């Protein structure tokens, strides 16, 4: 396993913690995207722990690591809790995303999960992924309905605005509640607004 982070003290701490766990061997450390690609090519580690905000960009480094060492699985280990960073990393085929505030036990679990071929995302970030999935499942019309409901409009007024029958709006709201996992329209509107605020 290799660790790439531009904070030496953090890197040393993680390396020390992992060396105390049986079966975990750290073969190299780096501080930039270029060094990450070099470590991948030289050592071909099973796992490469990678920070998002290293010089050269951690997310951009994922493709270079894969090109140099296809078998190396990238596990992001970062302070960033931005949903955009998480989504971008997973799209680039990172196998996991662990927030730095996590304990060594969670990191060890993440490494073992990724080594087993499964994806791992810190619990604090899973809700964001679930919310994105739920938002993506709404149809264009359902998005229009929940947008107006979030503004405080009743089914009747939403129907007038969209030139639809109130009964049709009620049907859309039922679907929206189910997809967003909400118990009522107020809860659905709050979840919708929260998701929009996260970007």
UniProtKB/TrEMBL annotation:
<dbReference type="InterPro" id="IPR039420">
    <property type="entry name" value="WalR-like"/>
</dbReference>
<dbReference type="InterPro" id="IPR016032">
    <property type="entry name" value="Sig_transdc_resp-reg_C-effctor"/>
</dbReference>
<protein>
    <submittedName>
        <fullName>Response regulator CheY-like domain-containing protein</fullName>
    </submittedName>
</protein>
<dbReference type="Pfam" id="PF00196">
    <property type="entry name" value="GerE"/>
</dbReference>
<dbReference type="InterPro" id="IPR000792">
    <property type="entry name" value="Tscrpt_reg_LuxR_C"/>
</dbReference>
<dbReference type="InterPro" id="IPR058245">
    <property type="entry name" value="NreC/VraR/RcsB-like_REC"/>
</dbReference>
<keyword id="KW-0614">Plasmid</keyword>
<keyword id="KW-0597">Phosphoprotein</keyword>
<dbReference type="InterPro" id="IPR001789">
    <property type="entry name" value="Sig_transdc_resp-reg_receiver"/>
</dbReference>
<dbReference type="InterPro" id="IPR011006">
    <property type="entry name" value="CheY-like_superfamily"/>
</dbReference>
<feature type="modified residue" description="4-aspartylphosphate">
    <location>
        <position position="51"/>
    </location>
</feature>
<keyword id="KW-0238">DNA-binding</keyword>
<dbReference type="Pfam" id="PF00072">
    <property type="entry name" value="Response_reg"/>
</dbReference>
<feature type="domain" description="Response regulatory">
    <location>
        <begin position="1"/>
        <end position="115"/>
    </location>
</feature>
<feature type="domain" description="HTH luxR-type">
    <location>
        <begin position="131"/>
        <end position="196"/>
    </location>
</feature>
């Amino acid at each position: 396993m290799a660790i790439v982070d531009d904070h030496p003290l953090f890197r040393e701490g993680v390396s020390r913690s992992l060396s105390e766990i049986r079966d975990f061997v750290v073969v190299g450390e780096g501080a930039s995207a270029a060094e990450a690609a070099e470590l991948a090519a030289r050592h071909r580690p099973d796992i490469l722990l990678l920070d998002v905000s290293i010089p050269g960009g951690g997310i951009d480094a994922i493709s270079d690591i894969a090109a140099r060492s296809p078998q190396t699985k990238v596990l992001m280990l970062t302070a960033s809790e931005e949903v955009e960073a998480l989504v971008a990393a997973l799209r680039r085929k990172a196998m996991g995303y662990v927030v730095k505030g996590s304990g060594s036990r969670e990191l060890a679990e993440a490494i073992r999960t990724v080594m087993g071929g499964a994806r791992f995302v810190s619990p604090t970030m899973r809700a964001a992924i679930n919310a994105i999935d739920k938002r993506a499942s709404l149809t264009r019309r359902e998005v229009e309905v929940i947008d107006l409901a979030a503004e405080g409009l009743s089914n009747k007024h939403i129907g007038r605005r969209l030139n639809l029958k109130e009964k049709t709006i009620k049907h859309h709201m039922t679907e929206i509640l189910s997809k967003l996992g909400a118990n009522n329209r107020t809860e659905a509107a709050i979840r919708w607004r929260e998701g929009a605020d996260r970007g």
